[in-house]
Request: fold
Amino acid sequence: MRRAVIAFTAFLGGLIFLLAGPAHAGPADCQGLRGTLNFQGQPVNGARISVTTEDGKPVAEATTDAQGRWDVQVEDPGRYKVTLDVGSLPQNAEARGGTNVRTLSVYEGNCSTALFPLQPKGGGQDQGQQSDDNSAFWTRAAQLTFEGFNLGLIIALAALGLSLIYGTTGLTNFAHGELVTLGAILAYGFNAGMGLGLIPAAAIAVIVAGLLGYLQDRFFWGQLRRRGTGIIAMMIISIGVALFLRYLFLIVFGGQTEAYTQYNAQPGVQVGPISAAPKNFVAMGIELVVLIIVGIALLRTRTGKAARAVADNPALAASSGINVDRVVRIIWTSGGAIAALAGIMLGLSQNLKYTMGQEMLLLIFAGVTLGGLGTAFGALIGSLVVGLFIQVSTLWVPPELKSVGALAVLIIVLLVRPQGILGRRERIG
Reply:
């Protein structure tokens, strides 16, 4: 019963938390339209964007830069029409669904984002008309499945740390998304700020984030536990920590979108029906290796067995001679490092911004809750389901609604199996 209450509280709180957060990654004085164009995992450079008023009066034109970004500032709030010049796209690319026009509202002091999903030519026609159309549909389905698996692995890395922390301490940590952002920003600082290669910069960022995770528990969360602070109170405190860190990132990193100095514009590699940049294959390999290592550590090492014992029953584990505080510190250190790695991988697949962890937080909670609260392997399975459904659902729904579908699956599964996929039923009373 306690887990069900906390699961519902976490889900509802996460939804409110995300909706209450900043809706854009731009500076506070931004007023206009912006976006990023990517095709097969690579930024599109030189694509032309035109912005007009709703009645067709020209406002401005923009061209995407080397990171695929474009930005148009407008003087007055209102409704604006954004048109993508399909003739300026790569030769084999087209707008998904043939839609190259978006009409968006710009509010005072805010930037709206125009999304133009791109696909290989011939990949978005209606299925069932000809055999070529069927082939294009299944090619696109294979591509989206690959992208969903990639996204699911990134969510799984982040969800793993959150699930382990919840399992050993009972804390639903709303600041976990900022640990994801922290890893990406640290790697960017070592890479772009200090001139290190991305690989050593990422390794140092993971180590630093792990150390910060240890310090968090040593001097903050551990102190709260020893003082007998309740789980709900600590959850609310974690929301405050998340807000503090998010706006600290805004001050230090800025509201702009950035990219690592390496591995940005790689040509796509065709593997059967799937096309992706080499960095995506390497990143997925690293993610799988890390997840396998963590799984083996939990099953085979003394620390892993102790962590599972603490998650099952902290009091019994302590009476058996297990140093619970030491185990929790190791979990916080590992969770911070793994979350940082997830942030680095997320920054490698898209651009960096100070809200990237917050935007991912609800998906992390979805993966953890779907797999089963407090179960590391459940978090992995739940995250893969969420990532796959998000991407594959765009075969039938607009890309803007893909996350809504994943959350609908979460609700349906929990109605059938409230404890999650690998969670355990608890006796009530």
